[in-house]
Design a protein that fits this description.
With 451 residues, this protein is an alpha+beta fold. It has helices spanning 128-133, 155-164, 182-194, 203-206, 228-243, 256-271, 278-292, 338-353, 427-442, 444-450; strands spanning 3-6, 16-22, 29-30, 35-40, 45-49, 54-59, 66-68, 72-78, 139-140, 246-254, 298-301, 306-309, 315-317, 319-321, 324-326, 329-330, 367-371, 390-394, 398-404, 407-421. A hairpin with a 2-residue loop joins strand 19 and strand 20 (407-421).
Length: 451
């Protein structure tokens, strides 16, 4: 008997997805966990696998469809299932059964007549009673992936929280078991607006402002809809800029010696299937800096007026893709050597560019590193990736004249910047943090001594 397969929950706050590819057709035989469709969320592309082996009977979606969680994707006849009986042929009209005698008005109503038993029907013919008793198609649903305990809230409540720029996980629920209501979200947003930090902005406010003029009055125009990634980026950046009082500080590192070492040992990384890039080295240094300056490995809980200090070191890396900016997360960077970091960086970057990145790969970072050196830029002011409290920017290294003991020598200068949340981090903290990173890059032995 065919069973419906519905789109499972794919992650926190994911309510709808875009179908990018259908990988099966009606009549195909699939194995358990074989991908059947590819979908795209705001930040990731995912393959949705079959819940069991069987034969595809119907495919109910196509590429380009936008479907909600819970929508039926296809129907599958499980492997080994008995085929459905053929539809019963129409029978010649039987003589009408005599109408039962009416009971006297004063007497009790007669018991309802029972439907004829299926056994009394001709062989191979389904009676109306048997059809009515036929078991409906079962619904197969996936268990939610373990991406952390989700906040107990309905999709409409989550949608409102996103529109208001409120992190649903921070909203205290007043319902049974801490369930969060629309009123809870509104009350939480009002408290944030009244707080000194000001009101957070979300995707809805990213485009808020005066009405645009009619640009077509002055010439030809073209309108392009935002992609899911661009929409999510706009909301995140607007929320971060509104929530966080940003300050950016700049420094530079003489990486002449480091570049010589990188070229000398890059063959070891290549043997492991990776490239020994400046980004991989900076990630290792940044991880050591978070251990030395734990104030930067934190998140602010403004509602409780507390700071959450993290004992782990996960680093996000900004990756430029054709869909927009994605930030995969490398976990436990402080426990890995530079070659291991390079391998992981290459793997996650490729997954991001190939639209194979999973939602869990984009969560849990403590600090983000963004390197625009490959595009030729020098100094820039990155926006802190909320709920982090700092972001490290790296520009393109250039050969410059360096004065040393009254003489000039050529040196390879790497531009560095750090943007930070001034509610928690002071300028002196940021200066020490960035200078330590610069010195660790200038003197690789420092990382072994103090990192």
């Amino acid at each position: 008997m065919a069973q419906e397969f519905k789109l499972p929950e794919l992650g926190e706050n994911i309510e709808t997805v875009d179908v990018t590819s259908v990988l099966v057709e009606a009549g195909d035989t699939v194995r358990k966990d074989q991908p059947v469709i590819e979908v795209e969320t705001e930040k990731a592309s995912l393959e949705v696998p079959a819940p069991f082996a069987g034969k595809i009977e119907q495919v109910l979606v196509k590429a380009g469809d936008k479907i909600p969680v819970g929508a039926t994707i296809l129907t599958i006849a499980p492997a080994g299932a008995q085929p459905e009986p053929a539809p019963a042929p129409e029978l010649a009209a039987a003589p009408a059964a005599p109408e039962p005698a009416k009971a006297p008005a004063s007497g009790p109503a007669p018991p309802a007549a029972k439907a004829p038993a299926a056994a009394s029907a001709p062989a191979g013919v389904a009676t109306p009673a048997a059809a009515a008793e036929r078991e409906p198609a079962k619904v197969i649903e996936f268990a939610r992936p373990q991406l952390g305990e989700p906040a107990p809230a309905a999709p409409s409540v989550r949608k409102l929280a996103r529109e208001l720029g409120v992190a649903i996980e921070r909203v205290p629920g007043s319902g049974p078991g801490g369930r969060i209501s629309i009123e809870d979200v509104k009350a939480f947003a009002k408290r944030l607006i009244a707080s000194p930090a000001g009101a957070p902005a979300g995707p809805a406010s990213a485009g808020a402002g005066p009405q645009l003029p009619d640009f077509a009055r002055w010439g030809e125009i073209e309108r392009q809809a935002w992609s899911n990634v661009r929409r999510a980026t706009a909301g995140q950046m607007s929320a971060a800029w509104t929530r966080i009082p940003h300050v950016t500080q700049f420094d530079r590192a003489d990486v002449t010696e480091l570049e010589a070492l990188r070229k000398q040992y890059r063959g070891r990384a290549e043997a492991a299937g990776a490239k020994l890039t400046v980004t991989a080295i900076v990630l290792k240094v940044a991880a050591a800096a978070l251990r030395r300056f734990p104030k930067f490995n934190a998140s602010i809980d403004a509602e409780r007026e507390e700071v959450v200090l993290k004992r782990y070191v996960n680093l996000g890396v900004a990756v430029d893709t054709e869909r927009g900016l994605l930030v995969p997360v490398i976990r436990d960077v402080d426990t890995k050597n530079i070659v291991e970091i390079a391998v992981e960086l290459g793997r996650l970057s490729e997954k991001a560019r190939q639209r194979k990145i999973a939602p869990d790969d984009l969560q849990g970072s403590c600090l983000t590193v963004t390197n625009l050196g490959g595009l030729g830029t020098t100094y820039f002011s990155p926006i802190v990736n909320w709920p982090e409290v700092a972001i490290l920017g790296v520009g393109r290294a250039e050969t410059q004249a360096i004065q040393e003991e009254g003489r000039f020598r050529p040196g390879l200068i790497l531009p560095l910047s750090v943007s930070y949340d001034h509610r928690w981090i002071d300028g002196a903290d940021a200066a020490r943090f960035l200078r330590w990173i610069a010195e660790a890059l200038e003197q690789p032995l420092l990382l072994a001594l103090e990192g």
